[in-house]
Amino acid sequence: MATVVRGKRVVKSQLHPSEGYPVYQNSLTTLGYFEHYNREAETAFLISAGAAGEVGYTRSRCWTADDVWTFDTEVIGQRYLYYLLMSKQETIKAQVRKASVPRLSKSAIENLVFILPPLDQQDRIVAILDRFDTLTTDLSQGLPAEIDQRQKQYAYWRDRLLQF
After folding, report:
1. Residue ranges of the chain with pLDDT lower than 70?
2. Do 49 and 103 touch, CB atoms closer than 8 A?
3. Could you tell me if 98 and 123 lie in one domain?
4. Are 11 and 63 in contact (CB under 8 A)?
5. End-to-end alpha-carbon separation of the chain, Å?
6. What are 34-81's pLDDT values in tens digits?
7. How many domains does the chain have?
């Protein structure tokens, strides 16, 4: 269903502090910027060493280094894959080998089992989850929506309580 792809090594001396494509190495924090990219925008990825088991998603082209797993697939949308991996994060982290540098093996990822709906259903699920994510994490959208709901609830109960 998906081919697990290891990123390509890049050395720190090749990185720029602010110009180019973001580089992900062994955490979800950008290591620096590189003049080339090896992954397109809208890519789910999984950290395989260091912060092993962390799930990431990038909306821009990026460079995934050798401690990052990405997934080549035509039957799973990348955003849907991101949500799937997030839902399995405890299972994934349980597969991390604890050592001086924690590691997540390719075989541990390849052995994950998912229910896979058709792409159009994946897109609908992603739209719902994205909207929910926005409402719960974006104060500029989530908070006004919550305030609006509370005002409607208040008006409803006010009217009900005052109907003798």
Report:
1. 139, 141-142, 161, 164
2. yes
3. no
4. no
5. 63
6. 999 999 999 999 999 999 999 999 999 999 999 999 999 989 999 999
7. 2
| Domain coverage including residue 55 | 3-116
The pLDDT assigned to 49 comes to 96
Alpha carbon distances (Å) from 54 to 89, 107, 144: 7, 16, 31
Beta-strand (E) ranges in 7-163?
21-24, 32-34, 43-47, 55-58, 63-64, 68-72
Q: How far is CA 110 from the centre of its chain?
A: 18
pTM attached to this predicted model: 0.82
- Assigned token pair, 67: 């401690």
Asked if 164 and 131 sit in the same domain, the reply is yes
